[in-house]
Amino acid sequence: MEVSTLTTERNTSVLKANNVDEKKVQLPVNYQPSENEDFMNPIQSEYFRQKLLRWRAELLDEANQTIANLSKESLHRPDQMDRAQIESNAALDLRTRDRERKLLQKIESALRRIEEGSYGYCEETGDPISLSRLEARPIAALSLHAQEMHERMERVHKDD
Question: Which residue ranges form the domains of the chain, and what is each CATH number?
Answer without folding.
Answer: 12-121 (1.20.120.910)
